[in-house]
Amino acid sequence: MVQDTRKMADAEPQQNPSPAGDTGPPKGMPALKAHVIANKIDVSLWAIRVLIVLCTFGYIMPLFNK
């Protein structure tokens, strides 16, 4: 019987990095746009929550300005 002498790090084939140097998912505005398009409902719910907090803050602050 032949035993497999590879270690866990050697178990997966090694992938060569792409020649363009692209590492990982996109970042910045393209990633934000893709996330907003993919998660329209979640993004809109968070936007409403932030708007509610800002409006509440704007409503309460004048009460402390006597």
UniProtKB/TrEMBL annotation:
One of its GO terms (cellular component) is membrane. Residues 1-29 are annotated as: Disordered. InterPro entries: TMEM33/Pom33. The keyword Iron does not apply. It comes from the Eukaryota. Residues 1-10 have a biased composition (Basic and acidic residues). The chain crosses the membrane at residues 46-64. Keywords: Membrane, Transmembrane, Transmembrane helix. This is Protein Kr-h2.
